[in-house]
Structure formats: structure tokens, C-alpha cells
Hints:
Elements (H helix, E strand, L loop, with lengths): L7 H16 L3 H16 L1 H4 L3 H16 L4 H9 L10 E2 L4 E5 L12 H6 L7 E5 L4 E2 L15 H5 L14 H21 L10 H22 L3 H12 L1 H8 L6 H16 L24 H5 L1 H7 L2 H13 L11 H9 L6 H11 L4 H9 L4 H13 L1 H10 L3 H16 L2 H11 L1 H14 L2 E3 L11 E3 L4 H4 L4 H11 L2 H9 L1 H12 L7 E2 L13 H20 L8 H21 L10 E2 L4 H15 L5 H4 L3 H22 L8 H11 L8 H14 L2 H11 L19 H20 L8 H15 L4 H7 L15 H10 E4 L2 E2 L5 E2 L2 E4 L1 H6 L3 H7 L4 H17 L30 H15 L7 H16 L29 H4 L3 E10 L14 E2 L8 H10 L8 H19 L21 E10 L1 H13 L14 H4 L11 H15 L1 H14 L10 H39 L6 H10 L8 E2 L6 E2 L7 E10 L28 H15 L2 H5 L9 E12 H13 L13 E2 L6 E2 L1 E4 L6 H4 L9 H13 ...
Antiparallel strand pairs: 1-4, 2-3, 5-6, 7-8, 9-12, 10-11, 13-14, 13-15, 16-17, 18-19, 18-22, 20-21
Amino acid sequence: MAGTGASSRDKRATAMRLKVALGGENSTAAAGELRALLERVLAPAAGSGGGEAAGEALEWCRCLLSGGEPWDGFVQAVRAYDPATLCGLVWTANFVAYRCRTCGISPCMSLCAECFHQGEHAGHDYNMFRSQAGGACDCGDSNVMREAGFCKRHRIKSNANVPCVPKDLLMMSELVLPQFIFSLIQHLREGYNEPALDLPSEKDLHKILQVLEPHVSFLEDLTKMGGAMRSVLTQVLTSQQFYKDLSSGVGENACAKKSHEKYLIALKGSGLAFPEDKLACGMEEQGAGTSTLAIQGLAGATATSGQGDSSDEEDQDGSQGVGKRKRVKLSSSTKDQSIMDVLKHKCFLEELLFWTIKYEFPQKMVTFLLNMLPDQDYKVAFTKTFVQHYAFIMKTLKKSHESDTMSNRIVHISVQLFSNEELARQVTEECQLLDIMVTVLLYMMESCLIKSELQDEENSLHVVVNCGEALLKNNTYWPLVSDFINILSHQSVAKKFLEDHGLLVTWMNFVSFFQGMNLNKRELNEHVEFESQTYYAAFAAELEACAQPMWGLLSHCKVRETQEYTRNVVRYCLEALQDWFDAINFVDEPAPNQVTFHLPLHRYFAMFLSKAVKCQELDLDTILPDQEMLMKLMIHPLQIQASLSEIHSNMWVRNGLQIKGQAMTYVQSHFCNSMIDPDIYLLQVCASRLDPDYFISSVFERFKVVDLLTMASQHQNTVLDSEHERSMLEGALTFLVLLLSLRLHLGMTDDEILRAEMVAQLCMNDRTHSSLLDLIPENPNPKSGIIPGSLSFESVLSAVADFKAPVFEPGGSMQQGMYTPKAEVWDKEFDPVMVILRTVYRRDVQSAMDRYTAFLKQSGKFPGNPWPPYKKRTPLHPSYKGLVKLLHCKTLHIVLFTLLYKILMDHQNLSEHVLCMVLYLIELGLENSPERESDEEVESTGGPERCHDSWFPGSNLVSNMRHFINYVRVRVPETAPEVKKEPPASTSSDGLASSQSSRRKSLQRENSGTAQVFSLVAERRKKFQEIINRNTSEANQVVRPKASMKWSAPGATPQLTTAILEVKESMLSLLIKLHHKLSGKQNSYYPPWLDDVDVLIHPEIPRYSHGDGMTAVERILLKAAVQSRLNKRIIEEICRKVTPPVPPKKISSAEKKTLDKEERRQKARERQQKLLAEFASRQKSFMETAMDVESPDADIAMEIATSEQHVSEAIYDCVICGQSGPSTEERPTGLVVLLQASSVLGQCRNSTEPKKLPTTEEEQIYPWDTCAALHDVRLTTLQRYFKDSSCLQAVSIGWEGGVYVQTCGHTLHIDCHKSYMESLRNDQVLQGFSVDKGEFTCPLCRQFANSVLPCYPGNNVERSLWQSHSNKCMQDLVQEVEDLQEQLGTFPVSISSETNLSKEMESVMKDIKSTTQKKYTDYSKSPGSPDNDFLFMYSVARTNLELELVHRGGNLCSGGASTAGKRSCLNQLFHVLAMHMRLYSIDSAYNPWRKLTQTMQDKNSELCISKLLYSGWIWFQ
């Protein structure tokens, strides 16, 4: 017999002889000889000799397989009998493949490039992608893709066309391959040494795999021979007899025995050996009272082998927290323990996969196993084997140091197995696949549980996953969750899951581990030292481990026949939620200063409710819990909404930027469908079933603005700083508008939702196709037709947007093609509510409004600055009609009335946004009125009165709008003006005395002598107690802990006292007065129906569609009049009380514009007269006290004032609010400026010699003869010989470090600027400048700025003095300057120090000083001397004049080319400097103007400086 070192010829001869002998009569002896030869050739000792020994063994195998024939010929012969109809090409990571959604049945379907190009996919929805984890071609597999998408090669071929394989062709393969595969397993056994403490070193593993690489490559080559060879391999791999004969270790072969012992050691080290003794242990005891962590006690090996010491300790700690939590047995309880512990190998394939896992999925081995998949028998057997090892895969994955690589390779295998629905169904039925997956996921997460600190930190029994663990941070769970999502995409599998009550209980147990994770606690004192980034892991975990399986299940609950599935999920979800509430000891008050964004149980409950109503026609009330449970369910989602406002209000700023990251991620497009949308829907459901007064009260209490909702001018907020009140009130009202306006789950179809989402994104900004695909929230159901890239997406896009083709920019780069909204979309579909919901950055809301404003101006629909338009809503689904009750409850009406009153009275902390939201809510109420009032009906009470009877008689907004409130009792500080009010005689009256009913009169008598009292918190607690009492009387008596008073009711603070406030207003009267206030004119509102009755019949008038606040008020009053004749009469009566009953004359629009212009001019002239008189008197005072010069008489000043009446008033346009008007002392306007320290003037030199860069150390870039150096020497010399104050008046600084003030020319109101800066602070993370330092960009031109220079109020008298300077000779200019100096008293330079203007002037002076270094503002020998300030201020004036002179080419009167794009701010700057310089005592003989300009005595210099003076003081006015 030939030895192992035989030549190739000898090997072929031996192989040929053995093949002949095996086919003859003496086959038994030949088989023994072959076996002995293979044992010698393939023994592990032989293979350890390195590459030569391995090559020798493989050469023997080739010769034996081919029967001595040439190898290439044998390969071709075998390929001729390939019956495979599948492609099955396997690729690794980074391979370019294709996916066709049109042809795919499974979302994971993929094609190799060759099959894709040979198939017919023209016009299909496909994409080319780079594979992340690897994959295999599915062409030919009808379970994964439709046959129409098969390529030509795999479509035509079938088993019928392939001849039978000759018996002798593969006879040697059937005998050789069992020995070869067993030798491979022996190599794997020998190479693996189970360590006592740590994992095998990666170096050792890599060495073994390197030795075995030729063997695995040989097997891979065999799989490529086609179906015939794969059948032989399948038979060998799955044969239990082969495995028993060769691998059992029974017999005299010492090597085989040793190998088997190593195998058993490896099994034991993995916690998988001989588990039969444990099977009966503890499973019967596992019931309702045991811990979820009890499983870990049963499978003790999991803890010891799966985690290090730290994980074991955490598990022990965690077990105390879950000791009382309900744990229900799995449906296959007898298999529960075996899922984790039992692993019995019966064939080569099973042990081969075991070692593949143990070696952490070597790529070559993975490729070989996948290459075998086209054989259907193998695919079934391998899938069952993979499922059998699923728990072991999880354990190995947790221990792996290369979990990312291992995860990719696991998914590379599993996606090929579980994408096939038929195979997934078979494995589910035969191998309990669902039980295994859910149990393994549960085990995996239990290794990183910690005690929850939500609500009751000390006594909480709830446990959550620790987001800081590597398991979550590294997404180690991803491959297992991915597999679970994959199998749930199959209807037959999902159906089994939804029918299995035990599985649902276990799954809800799993989901509860994520309920309340990553808890945030608000830092109140110091900034958090370390900003944790665990929120990334938390959001990813909820989306992947909870939300994605939920969407998979929901996709199979779309028809009425699936109602029972939804009932099952809702039932067990509610049970899990009740357990959670009990575990955290929750009653009705959330713990303050805590928020978690993760409530997956709430979201499961919400989305299955939505699906039940939308698709399954279930009666919502049959699956909803009782009122007490609904009250609990609403609290935590509502807390999230309130916390969002707190975060945007910078109340969580000490928690760092990560908290803002969480708030943005919560609403981001990839998460919103699974987070904020279900939360708002759940709140809508709760609101539709709970008492509306309770719900509204809860909202304002959660937003902490209860104390603000008082009609008193002053209040004390016990839980909120005053600086946050406005933004929190805006947040509460905006949330209510969202809650009452959104219809995403309340009646909109899928196409309507897609259209609304698309319009919202396009209104914020023009979008490219790809960015729009990414920004539209992904509908996780792949068969819905709404996924990005579907035909529905394209058709909706073409309907709402126009495409702007790509253009080449001047630099050569190309600007991408963009989609922009059509004009009719802006006109009819722009929905600011949807924009607010979908904005991650608040600036996007402003961007949408700016674009909307531009459209209205461009189309001529509205010239001013519009308010967000009111968009009519989709009708509510009948199941949610109760939501409208919120709009018709007295609590909301009281809040709306209070806010309207406060806005009218100009109370603090109320912005235009608050008014906008209040009007929006009123309009929503009118649009959703329960029923139209009859003519006879006075008040619609709508049932028994329950609360607030003294405020409003009923709950219908239409009738309550006309109800007059006379007096209100308020709680105010003792210093408030309301304290002195006397008690009233009566409290309540209707708008029309003649229409008061007997009921109203009795109500008045009952309330006579008292004023209305309103406490949101007290009312909410009263409602809560009513519901609790009702529930406890119906059910068993339960002792409940008393809720702690986290928020105090108004009036509970001892420092407050009661006062009576006279109101005597109704909502209608307040609206009419607000119209007057917004228009700036008395009697501005005139009922339109008095001129045109048709508006009452057809109220949908286009002119009311777009406009500002006045338009909104007009629209509301018209709708109120349309719905009730009594309202109509009351509106007319209110208008008659203010306006004489003379109908306005019919005028054309052109005449109206003329009249408005004349009216504005008249008012301007009146204001101007008043201001000039005031300026004259103030100037007189200034000249007498500060300048010590003789001032003109008062009558002369009045003469000047009256002679200048023809001069127009200076009008400024605010680029933020868009209003035009003068700058006043109470509301000053400012110029956007940039303050910069400049040393440009200091670089001037006497020498005309050009500057040179220094090339040696001796040379200096700053020579001694620069202007700055000379002035420093001069000042030092003067201070040496003269008095310090005299020296400082003799020089000018600013040559180095001088402050240069420049402007873009745009103006804005100072208060608008402060609001603008506040909005920039909310987006501070995104700015390229420091908002805290006052830096910003001009809202109009986006130029950089850092301050606002107040504009002095007054007329354009200085500006009018300038004529054409170039026509006058120098002597005339000198004379004019001297005349102006004599008339200096007529120019206003003094203002009251208590006005807003003076405060802003002081503020900008501080900005100017802080712009330069302190050494440039402190030249005096005495630090803090007033002389320093005086020197600094007039040096600022000179610096800016000098630099202006440089800009204008040396001539201020007729500037050079550089003046074209530059705007001056010297007028405003000089006013600021003058206001501050008047505070300093100046020698009467001292001429400040001459001193400022450094006038010399020689004539030429005097003429030059006079020209400079004249230009600076007059021309720039």
C-alpha cells in the first residue's frame, strides 16, 4: 500500500485501484484499506506538520475522490449533473449587490450583479448597495422573491432536464468525505483548549484557523461543483450513523478517545454538558410569584460563563428589585431550561456549527456553510441546527472581544435562513423557534439589569437595562433582534406569536426591561461633571429591540379577522403596565425633576389601539381600561411633553448638551413614528375618555404654569423661575394645539399622512430627493406602499412640489436639483402645526414662516408679516369624538379668558406666540362646536353643571364667548394694586340684559356678593379623588398612599392676599379690543356682515385665509357670529358702544391707502411737535448744568420747534417683527452693529518708504515711527511734566486698540432683539459664534454683529441741514461750523436716565468698553478716574471719524469708491457718546468739538479740521 509520501502517479494509481476494488466483490476489504489510508493521511498529527503535510493530505483526497482521474475532468463531469435551480452565490462584507423591492417577497432579498442584470427589472423599485455583513444571491428562490424577477439562467432550468448521476461517479466521495469532515472536526477539537479563567487568546485561535484554512477551502471548492456534490456533502453532514461511528469515542483508537474527551470538556466549559440532571430542577416552582431572574438561577452556567464578576454582582443586586414581579412560564415550559442548557450533537453538521460558534464564526467556515444552502435538505437541517445552537450563539456573542465582526457573520447566516417564510414556519412548529428567540433575548438582557430610580427611588421594585453596559453601547444584541424582526415579517410566524399567550407575557416582560431606562435627573445646583452619552444606546435599543418587532406584529393586524390578536396584545400590555405602576409605587403624581424618554409599553398599547380602530373596526371602549388606569397612563407621556418645553427653555442646561440631544432625537424623523407620535396619540385617547377639566388642569400643572394663570398683574410662581414662565406657557399652549389638531392616528389615511409629512418638510426648506426620502418618517410596514421609494411616494411628491433642475455655479461646482412646494400648497396646505411637530431645530419653524411670508408678498395675497395660517382639520374618527370635549370645557375657557385679558392688559411673560395659540384654540373650538345654537336658546349647558359655575354657565364655547365676567377674586402679593379694590355687588351677567333667563338670574342671586375663584390644581385633585372613589367602590377596597403635593395651588403661599379684580369683559369684548390694540387704531373693527350679509352664509372668504393677528380675530368673530345669532347681536352692540352707529362710507382700496397715509402723516406731525418741544426744554437744562453756557429762551426754542414742523419724523423698519415706526424712549429701535478693536490707524507712518517684511532679528515689522508709537511717547512725556487730567485732555488714544463701529444698516426693536437672542440660545449648539457674548447674525442679511446701537428718538432735523457741500467754499464751511457750535443748545443730547433708551445706551457703552483690552481704557495714573472714561469716549468718536475718512479716500463730503457698500452709524454713535459725556464736568473755556478733532492754530489745518467737523456732525445725521 502506498505511503503518505507517495508520488502523484502512485496516489492516482492507488486511488484507481481502490475505486475498482470498491466496485467489485471484495469491497469490504477495500473499504477497510481506504479507511486506514485516510486515518493515516488525515490524522491531526499529520496535519500539524504545516502546509506541506496539509497539501499532501488534500492531494490524496483529490486523487481518491476522482478515482485516479484528472481532477479538472472530474470537476467538469460532476458539474454536468447539477440539478440546482438556485444561484446561492455567497459574498462577504463590502460586496456590491442589488435589491429589488418590486420583486422581493422578503425585505432582506438580494441579488448578485450577474443575476440582476440578466433579469427583467426595468422600471422596478430597486437599489444597488454595499453589503455590510455579507449575503447570498436569492435568484431562483420563490419563497424569497417572485419568479418574474428570476434571471434567464435560473428561470429556465429545472430538475426534469438534468440526467441521473452515474453511481460510480460519486462513489468515492461518499466514502472519503465522512473521514475528511471528521478529521476537520478532530483538528478543531485538538486546537481548542478551554481556559480556566479567560478566553483562548486570539493568537491561538488564529493559528488553528490558519492551519485549517486549506481544508475548509477544499470543502468550499466541492460545494461549487453543483447540486450533485452538495447532495453527497449533505448526506455526510446530516447522517447520524456516520457521526456515531466516527465521533463517539467508543473503540480502541486512543486518538479518537482523546478527541472525544476534549469535545466533552468544551461542552462542559460552555455550560452545555449533560443537562439531563437539571431538567426537572425548579421548572414546576416557576410561577406567578417568582422572579424574572429566577431563570438565571436555573441556568447557572449562563451567569458563570456568560459574564464576568461584575455582571454576576449586578444580577444579584437586581434580583432583589424584581423579587415580587410576575413571571409567567413560557408556553413550552418543559423546553424552557433546555433552551439554554441542552445541546446534544447527533451529526457532523451540528458539531461543525458548534465549533464554528466556538471559534467565533471564521469567515471561511461561514462561507462553506452558506455555499451549501442551495441544497434544500441541507437548508432545513442547517436551519434546525442553527436554532438548536441559538442560545449558545448568544453566550458566545456576549463574551466575544470582536462582537461587531461576529454580529455581522451571524446575520450573514441567519438572514439566509429566516427570510424564507416556509422554512421559518416549519422551524417554528418543529423547533419552537419563537420560544427560543424570546427566551434567549430575555436571558441576554437580564445580564445587565439595574434597579430603576424612577418615581420611588428607595422602594422601587422595577429593574431596567443599564445603558452604560457594553451589551447596549455596542449593540451586541443587534443580530438576535434582527433575526426576531425577520421572522415576524412572515404572517404565519407572527400569527403563532400573537396566538401564544405565554409568549406574549414573556415578550411584555422583555419590553418592560426598557420601560423607564436612561432616567434623567435635573441638575439644580452645579453643572454635571461628566456628560453621559448613554442616550445613544437607549434610543437605539428601544427602536431596534422594542419598536421594530412591534411594527412587524402590527403589519399582520390589518383586517377584521385579526381582532383577537390585538385584544391579546392590549390585554397583556395593560397587565405589564399595571405591574410597572405597582413596582414603581405610582399613584397620580410623577416625581419632580425626572424624565425618561423611553416608555415602550405605553407605545405598544397606543399603536395596537390605533390599529384596532383604523383597520380592525374594533370598538375602542371594549379594549380600554378604566378611568383610573387611563389617568395613570397619561402622566408619563405628558411629563415628556412638559420636559421638552423645559429643555428648550434652558431649565436643564446644567445637565449638559446631551439632554438637548435626547429631546431632538425623540422627534427626529427616524424615531418620531415610534416615540412622539404614539405618545401624543395615547394622550389623545386619554383626553377623549377622561374628564376634560381634569385633563386640562393636569396639562398646565405638568407645565408648571398654574400660578401664571391668574388675572392679577402680579403673581408668585412657586415652582418656576420668572424667566422660564413665558416659554413654558408657550409650550403648554402649543402642546394643546398639537393634541387637538393632529389627526395622524385619528382619521387620516396613509396617503394623507404621507402628503402632510412631505408638505411639512418642503415648507421648512427646499429638499433634494434623497434628503426628503430620509426626512419622511419611515413607515416600518414594507408592504404598505408608503415606504420611501415607492410609487406612492413619487406620485405624492409630483403633486405637491416642483423640481428645480441642477445648475452650475460660477465656480464650476454644481448645485443639486431641489424640490420646492407648489404655490397652491403654500396657499391651501401649509400646516404650521405639522411643521412644529416635525422640527428638530426650532429655527426650522421660523424658516417655514419666512418662506410662507415671502410667498404671500410675492403673490400679492398679504403684504405684511403674517401669522401662522389656520388649517381646517380632517374629520375625527367617531371613536375619538370625545377629544372635542377639551375645547368645550370650562377650565379651558377660563384659561383662554384669563390669557386674553392678560394680553390686553400687557401683563408680563405673554408673547405674540401665546396670543397666536390662544386664538388658534378658540378657532378650533368654533370649528368643532357640538351643535349650532337655535335662535331661542340662550345658554347651552349641555348637562348638569359640575364646576366653575360662577365663571361660565355652560360648557359650550359658542355661548361662553358672550358671557360677561364682572369680578374675579385673585391671590396677589400685598403690594399689588388690586389689593385696594372693594367687593362687588354682583359677579356675573350676560352680554344682553334682555336675554337673561330665569336660571341666569337665580345663579346671579346665588353668587351675589362673591367673586369667582379658580384653582386648577384643586380642581384636578377633586376630579382625581372622584374617579378613585368611584373605582374603589366598584372594585375591592385598596389602600392607596396619599399623593404628595408637588405643586401648590394658587393662594397657598402665605405671602399672598386676596383681592377683588374688576373685569367686566367677555371673550367677544376682549377679542374686539385686541383687534383695536393690534391695529393701533381705536374702533378698528367693524362687523363685515353689516355691509355684506353673504359673509354669514359663506364665511369661507379667501381674504381671511392669510393675514396677521387682526385677520385671525376677524375670522374668529365672524365664525362666532355665524354659529349664534346672540353672538352676532352682542358683537354689534359692543361695537356700537365704542363706535357711533354710523356705517362707514364705501371706499375703494386706493382711497383707503390714501386715507391711511394721511392719517399716519398727521400723527407723525403731532408726535414731532411734542418731541421738539420736549427736546428744547431738556436742552436748556443741559446747557445750564453741564456746559455752563447761555441757552436760548424757551420761546425761541418753541419758535424753532414750530418752524420745523414740516420736517418728517425718522421712521425705522424692524427686520424681526416687520413693523415700521419711530424710535421711542420706551421702545427704542437699534442699529445692528459690529464692534471691533482696531489698530489700523496706529500703523500710519511719517515715512513714504514702503514697508518691508523683516528678514533678520535686527529688523522690526513695527518700526518706531508709526502713529501708535509716536502717540505713546507723547503721552508718556506729557504725564512726566504735567498734571494727569490735563495730559489726558491733550491727547487722543485709539490708535492701538481703538473701537471701530460698523453696521449693515438694518434696524430692529431692542425688545425684538432680546427675543431673537433668546431663540439663538436655544440653538446654541449649532451656532458658529458665542451667543453668550452677545454675538449674532443680522436676521435680514446674516452679517456678523455683536451689539445694537440705540437710535435716538426724534425727527430728521439734523439730516435736513445737509445740502450739497461740494458747492461751498472752505470759508463758508468754517462759518457754518462756528454757527452750529453757537446753536448747540438746540440739539438734543439729554434724556431721562430712567427710560429704556437710556438703559440701552448704557448697555451699548459697556459693550464698547469690553470690546478692547482694559489697558486701552485706563491711561490715568489713578485707576478708575473719570478722566479715563472721558478720554476713551471722545477717542472712540475720533477713531471712527478717522477710519471713515480712510474709507472715503480722505474726503468725508464726497467719498471715494469704497463708500458705495458701506453704511455709517456715526449719528447713533455720537448720540450715545454725547449722553455719557454730559456726565463729566468740562471747563467752560474748553471747546469739546475742537478738542475732539485736535484742531491746530494754523489756517490750513483749521480749514481741514473744520471740514472734518462739519461732515461728521451734520452730514452723518
